[in-house]
Amino acid sequence: MNKKNFLSCFLVIALTGCSYSGRTAAATAQPQECQTAALVQESLDGTKQEDSWQTAYKDIISHGGGHLPDPYQLRGIDGMNPSVYLGTHDFNGDGIPELILGDGISVSVYTYENHGLKKEADLYEPEGWYIINELYLQNNCLILVSNGSDGCGYVGFTWQNSAYITGTHDDYNPDRSYLNDVETAYKAFDDVFHITNLEDDCKRSLIKRNKESGDLTWDWSDVRW
Question: Which stretch is the leader sequence (predicted)?
Answer without folding.
Answer: 1-26
